[in-house]
Amino acid sequence: MCRHLGWLGREVSVSSLVLEPAYGLRTQSYAPRRQKYALLNADGWGVGFFDGAIPRRWRSAAPLWGDASFASVAPALRSHCVVAAVRSATVGMPIEVGATAPFTDGHWLLSHNGIVDRHVLPATSSAESVCDSAVLADLIFARGLDELGAVVVEIGNADPHARLNILAANGSRMLATTWGDTLSVLHRDDGIVLASEPYDDDADWDEVPDRHLVEVTPDGITMTVLKGP
Ligand code: GLN
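== Gamma-glutamyl-hercynylcysteine sulfoxide hydrolase ==
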């Protein structure tokens, strides 16, 4: 399954979050440390960041470790809010840029780490790809991010095998769910990181328990349990 990372805080370089840390997304693209459902994440990558209120994305269907152009430019890309991911495509899903997180509705950037049976999702013609994550993102955007916890519980109940770790941000809020896979949080002096797995060995990383909704705002973090019926 994929690995994702979100940042909300002071303006920092994309490179400092994604490429420079010893076990950051670049390393996780070929040697993740906590990934249970795949060996590596070679099927693409995406970096989304807010430029003021505008979400901008750079995505590719090739492995992150080999992208010298991105590595050259990433130190100059700076933002206070970032959503990035490396992808391990679920068997049967297309390997294409449109299937690669982060997805956007023009306000939010969203990544899905997991798997869901598309039969439990409403049919859509506006998703970027037929990939399960793209269709799920389309549903979450249609329902609105205030409904994120409710949608995850609903879909999780409709498909008991689903894994639904979502990460989303809109420039002033960052939301994440744990439903079947790992997520860690790091409070830094200059902001908060949410990541599928720690990008270094800092003792301050905390694991988020499964089946939780995390909300990060400039005022701090809140966590709520996601309850089934
Ligand atoms: N199911 C999604 C895909 O195929 C996400 C996979 C993942 O989390 N690795 O891209």
